[in-house]
Design a protein that fits this description.
This protein is of the alpha+beta class. The chain folds into 2 domains: 154 residues, Creatinase/prolidase N-terminal domain (Creatine Amidinohydrolase, Chain A, domain 1), CATH 3.40.350; 279 residues, Creatinase/methionine aminopeptidase superfamily (Creatine Amidinohydrolase, Alpha-Beta Complex). The protein is 34% helix and 14% strand. Bound molecules: glycine (GLY) and manganese (II) ion (2 copies).
Length: 441
């Protein structure tokens, strides 16, 4: 891998050039990008954990720095107003250091109000990107998140720089290492809460620094798609384990899911079949293919597994057409990933933000973009035994095609999801998650 300093340099230069071109196109002389202000808990004296705005993090890996600002003009280095208060209640942010300061005119302030000194004098040609603060509210003539500019920025964000890919790869390495620790804890019979804590510790991060709430699900809890309860008590017997957990590096995220069984039974065979299906799905990706087509192909492949295991006696095509496959796989195949776990711009048809929603038959698909070089996606097929969805099928016109006794026997295992983070290259696909696991072997 090229040196991260070099990659960051290329990233920031390209980003600035693209954003300056958009500023010209939409007639803005300055962009002002606040990192944001912490949000106070209602009638309390504490704040929710703070994360710098993603507009800010696109430029600088300062993931938890409030009351700071980027001021970007057409020429020269952008100004970075860096808030470093003297505060004996809290740790003082470190002095500006790392790969980024060389690219900015860094102005350290110790008082929030001082930021005003670095704002453009004339706010009539300014666009503010992100949540307003007391400082940006004084820019009375500024455009507040103009959609023209935001849509173009969000559209472009789907194409990752090599620096961004290197950061996501590192986030995958951190997560893969922790997934291995979690698997061991599961095999040792630990509770969901113990597995979760072992996972967090293994990433060397704090819980509030996780990219999303870990999904650590034993047995039938694996059938709850966003299960985040984390029971403190271990079940009498753990028969299966679904873990969906990532990590973050420089503000970029990973999002990985694995499923395990304790016995070599039919559920374990289903896991093997789904793992193979997921790898085949990734191997089949054609550069510039529509993500929706890959999602529909995945439905057919999962339906073929459902048929092969004798769970439903219908052809894969009729399962997909009738919605039966969606009973077992009721979410999208995946999403764009980057500075946000579910990265923005997934349902745009163009840079102007023309909506391109998924068809009614696949309402939860988060991206309809084509899979172009430089784009990063998750690929996360699933197969679950979900009470409420199966109950509806039991009353429906296809009920007799279902093997209800087999389904009953599989329900205690919950479900299966296998999720990797990939980058589409010109003639290949980089699987950051599988590569990160392989590095551990
Ligand atoms: N962890 C949330 C997701 O997979 O999209
Ligand atoms: Mn996930
Ligand atoms: Mn995901």
């Amino acid at each position: 891998m090229a040196d991260i300093t070099e990659l960051y340099s290329l990233h920031i230069n390209d980003l600035l050039a693209r954003h300056r071109q958009l500023m010209q196109q939409f007639d803005f002389e300055y962009l002002v990008i606040p990192s944001g202000a912490p949000i106070r808990i209602y009638m309390d004296d504490m704040d929710y954990p703070f994360k710098s705005s993603f507009h800010f993090r696109t430029y600088v890996p300062l993931t938890e720095l409030p009351h700071s600002y980027l001021v970007i003009g057409q020429q020269g280095k952008p100004t970075l107003v860096y808030y470093q208060p003297e505060d004996y209640w809290h740790a003082k942010p470190s002095d500006p250091q790392g790969v980024w300061p060389a690219h900015f005119d860094v102005q350290v302030i110790s008082d929030q109000q001082q930021a005003s000194e670095f704002m453009p004098q004339d706010s009539s040609n300014v666009a503010v990107l992100g949540e307003h603060t007391a400082i940006t509210s004084k820019l009375t003539l500024a455009a507040d998140n103009p959609s023209s500019l935001i849509n173009a920025i969000q559209w472009q964000r789907a194409y990752k720089s090599e620096y961004e890919i290197a950061c996501m790869f590192e986030a995958n390495r951190m997560a893969a290492k922790a997934h291995r620790v979690a698997e061991q804890a599961f095999r040792a019979g630990k509770s969901e809460q113990q597995i979760h804590l072992a996972y967090v510790e293994a990433t060397s991060c704090l819980e509030h620094q996780m990219p999303y709430s870990n999904i650590v699900a034993l047995n039938q809890n694996g059938a709850v798609l966003h299960y985040t309860e984390c029971q403190a008590q271990a079940p009498q017997q753990s028969v299966s384990f679904l873990i969906d957990a990532g990590a973050s590096f420089n503000g970029y995220h990973s999002d990985i899911t694995r499923t395990y069984a304790t016995e070599q039974n039919e559920f374990a065979e289903l896991i093997t079949a789904m793992d193979e299906m997921q790898r085949n799905c990734i191997a089949s990706i054609q550069t510039n293919q529509a993500y929706l087509d890959l999602h529909v192909d995945a439905h057919l492949a999962i339906a073929a597994i459902i048929q092969r295991f004798g769970i439903v006696d219908m052809t894969p095509e009729s399962m997909v057409e009738s919605g039966v496959s969606a009973t077992f796989f009721p979410h999208g195949l995946g999403h764009l990933i980057g500075l946000q776990v579910h990265d923005v711009g997934g349902q745009f048809a163009d840079q102007n933000g023309m909506p391109n929603p998924p068809p009614e038959s696949h309402p939860f698909l988060r991206t309809t973009r084509s899979m172009e070089p430089g784009m990063a996606f998750t690929i996360e097929p699933g197969l679950y035994f979900i009470d409420s969805l199966l109950a509806t099928q039991k009353q429906g016109e296809f009920a007799s095609a279902f093997n209800w006794s087999k389904i009953e026997a599989l329900m205690p295992f919950g479900g299966i999801r296998i999720e990797d983070d990939i980058v589409v290259r010109q003639d290949s696909v980089l699987n950051m998650s599988r590569d990160a696991f392989a590095e551990l072997d």
